[in-house]
Design brief:
single chain, 263 residues, alpha/beta, Rossmann fold, 2 domains, five-stranded mixed beta sheet, 47% helix
């Protein structure tokens, strides 16, 4: 009888008790120290393991694994592999730990049942991990911009420019020209964008601390109007045309004239 050993882990760094590659190989060597052992580091649902095994199968071959699910955790793939590639060559799989051989109908059913159990366990574990990540994300809400003094200072700059009727494109240009980073640290996410500025303004424009800020442009216009009014008041009033026909200079018409009638 020809015999080969199969050791498999999902990843190269997997170190679950009894299932690491080194531990599997050690147990397989204890069963048969001379048989060739092939090691795989790939998913339990990856079909590529079977073509590698098939090329080493001869008539009357015993494929030795430490556990049934070390061959695969896909029951349909395992059933097809046994039916099409092992039975015609009078070969079978033997699990050392479970003492199951697939060379009988009962053995084959027991082997496939173990595969189903492993597949179910893997599926349930996956659901638990996803559920845990889902709850973890809920407990840790997304951090909003403006959580420190540096970011609050940037919001103030942007809101002051917005209140001065500066366009979004020019706000972006102002931030870039003055080398104002979005975050205090020099991360890859430090670049400003039009959409980010728009959303930031939308979130903050109704807040009391930003709503009625000092508007320099409007203040400048008010100063110009006041100066214009002052200049108008300081101009001399135009003289009215005199309608009388006297020979006296009309500029003195409102002053008393001392005239010597007897003289």
């Amino acid at each position: 009888m020809f015999r080969i050993g199969i050791a498999r882990v999902s990843t190269k760094t997997q170190q679950r008790s009894g299932n690491s590659l080194s531990e599997q190989v050690q147990r397989l060597r204890q069963y048969d120290s001379h048989m060739p052992i092939y090691e795989f580091a790939q998913s339990a649902y990856n079909k590529s393991i079977f073509p590698h095994i098939i090329q080493h199968i001869k008539n009357n071959t015993e494929i030795v694994v430490l556990y049934c699910d070390r061959l695969s955790r896909n029951v349909s793939d395992c059933s097809e592999f046994i039916t099409k590639n092992l039975i015609p060559k009078n070969s079978y799989v033997y699990s050392i730990s479970e003492n199951i051989r697939t060379n009988t109908k009962t053995g084959k059913l027991e082997f496939l049942k173990k595969i189903v159990d492993g597949e179910t366990l893997s599926h349930n574990l996956s659901l638990r991990v996803k559920d845990g990540l889902k709850h973890s994300k809920k407990k840790q809400p997304k951090k909003k911009y403006g959580s420190d003094n540096y970011e609050n200072k940037n919001i103030k700059i942007i809101m002051d420019l917005y209140n001065d009727k500066i366009k979004y494109e020019n706000i972006l240009k102002y931030l870039k020209d003055n080398k104002i980073n979005k975050f205090k640290d020099n991360s890859n996410k430090n670049k400003w964008s039009i959409n980010f500025i728009k959303n930031l303004i939308k979130e903050n424009k109704n807040k009391t601390e930003y709503k009625n800020k000092f508007n320099f442009n409007e203040f400048k216009k008010e100063l110009e109007i006041i100066d214009k009014q002052k200049n108008t008041k300081n101009e001399p009033e135009a003289e009215e045309d005199c309608e009388c026909e006297c020979f006296i200079d009309c500029s003195f018409k409102n002053e008393p004239i001392d005239m010597d009638i007897d003289g």
